[in-house]
Design goal:
By secondary structure, the chain is of the alpha+beta class. Strands 4, 5, 6, 7, 8 and 10 form a six-stranded mixed β-sheet that branches. Strands 2-1-3-9 form a four-stranded antiparallel β-sheet. A hairpin with a 4-residue loop joins strand 5 and strand 6. Helix 6 runs parallel beside helix 8. The chain is elongated, with a radius of gyration of 22 Å.
C-alpha cells in the first residue's frame, strides 16, 4: 500500500509542476489498452493536445495517457493502475522537454564531448540529459543513445542537477534520418567555414581534437544508414564549431576520409556537408 501511495503522490507532484505522468508496469512498459481500446478500435489518441475520439478513463494508449489532470490521476481506473504499477513515467514533449537517454559510459563520454551541458539525471546504467524544447523522438540515433520528446515517455527518476539548457541544433540533428535537399552541390571537398581560423574562442584545442576524433569514430562505427549517419555527424560538428572558425580544411578532410572509407563518394560527402551548412544557416 505504501508503494501505491508513493507512486500516486509522485505523479500528483509532477502534474502540479506541469509534467504529465503515467504509470508503468514491471519492465518499464505502459499499461496495455483496455478491451474497448484494444488495437486502437476507439480511434486512439494521436497527441496530447488533441486527444481524438477516445475518452477512455483508463491509462490507455501508452505515452498519450499522460496527463496533468488530478481528477484523472485520482480516478478509480487510475487508482487500480497505481496499485499494480512499478514506476512512474512522464511525457517529455507534454512538459516542453527533450530527454537524451544515454545508456552507458561510452554514450555519456560522447555527450560530454559533443552536447551542451544541461540538467542531468542519473539512471541505472547511464544518464538522462534534459533540454528545454521539443522535437520528434527517435531511438538508437547512435550507439547507446535515444531521444525522447514528442510522442514518447521516459521513466521519472528525479529532478536532476544543473541548469537546463535550451534544446540545441546538435540534438535536433540526431533525429534526422536523411539530409534535406541540397540548395547546391559543389564537386570539390572545400566548403565555406566562416573565414576565420585558429583556436576556437570558446573551446580548448583539446575539445576540438576530441570532437573530431569522436566524429570520425561515429562514422567509422556506423553499421547501417551510413549516409544519414554522415549527415548527422557533419551537422553535429558544424553546430558546435561551424560559427567560430576553428574548423580547418584538415578537419574536414578527416571527416570526408572517414565517410569515404564507409563507401560514401566525394560527391555525397560534399552534398551532406553543404546540406548541414544550409540547415544551420552558415
Amino acid at each position: 500500500m505504501t508503494t501505491t501511495i508513493t507512486l500516486r503522490d509522485t505523479a500528483l507532484t509532477l502534474a502540479a509542476n506541469g509534467v504529465p505522468p503515467l504509470p508503468l508496469r514491471a519492465g518499464k512498459v505502459p499499461f496495455g489498452n483496455c478491451r474497448r481500446c484494444a488495437k486502437n478500435a476507439c480511434g486512439g489518441r494521436p497527441n496530447m493536445k488533441t486527444p481524438g475520439p477516445c475518452t477512455c478513463p483508463s491509462p490507455c494508449h501508452g505515452w498519450a495517457a499522460a496527463t496533468t489532470d488530478p481528477h484523472v490521476l485520482n480516478s478509480p481506473q487510475w487508482q487500480a493502475a497505481w496499485g499494480q504499477a512499478a514506476a512512474v513515467a512522464y511525457h517529455p514533449g507534454g512538459a516542453g522537454l527533450t530527454v537524451v537517454d544515454l545508456d552507458d559510459a561510452a554514450a555519456i563520454a560522447w555527450a560530454r564531448e559533443t552536447l551542451p551541458a544541461t540538467r542531468t539525471v542519473p539512471t541505472t546504467r547511464g544518464e538522462h540529459w534534459l533540454y528545454e524544447g521539443t522535437m520528434p523522438s527517435a531511438n538508437a540515433v547512435r550507439p547507446g543513445v535515444d531521444v525522447k520528446s514528442l510522442m514518447a515517455y521516459a521513466r521519472w527518476l528525479g529532478w536532476g542537477k544543473g541548469a537546463m539548457a535550451a534544446l540545441p541544433d546538435s540534438v535536433r540533428a540526431l533525429a534526422l534520418t536523411d539530409p534535406p535537399a541540397a540548395r547546391r552541390a559543389p564537386q570539390t571537398l572545400s566548403a565555406p567555414l566562416g573565414g576565420r581560423s585558429g583556436q576556437c574562442p570558446h573551446r580548448t584545442p583539446v575539445f576540438l581534437a576530441r570532437g573530431i576524433a569522436m566524429a570520425e569514430q561515429s562514422i567509422t562505427g556506423a553499421r547501417e544508414a551510413v549516409h544519414a549517419t554522415v549527415y548527422r555527424t557533419f551537422l553535429a560538428v558544424l553546430s558546435t564549431h561551424g560559427r567560430c572558425g576553428c574548423l580547418t580544411d584538415t578537419h574536414v578532410a578527416r571527416l570526408f576520409t572517414a565517410a569515404q572509407a564507409k563507401g560514401e563518394t566525394a560527391r555525397h560527402c560534399t552534398d551532406a556537408w553543404t546540406n548541414a551548412l544550409t540547415t544551420l544557416g552558415l
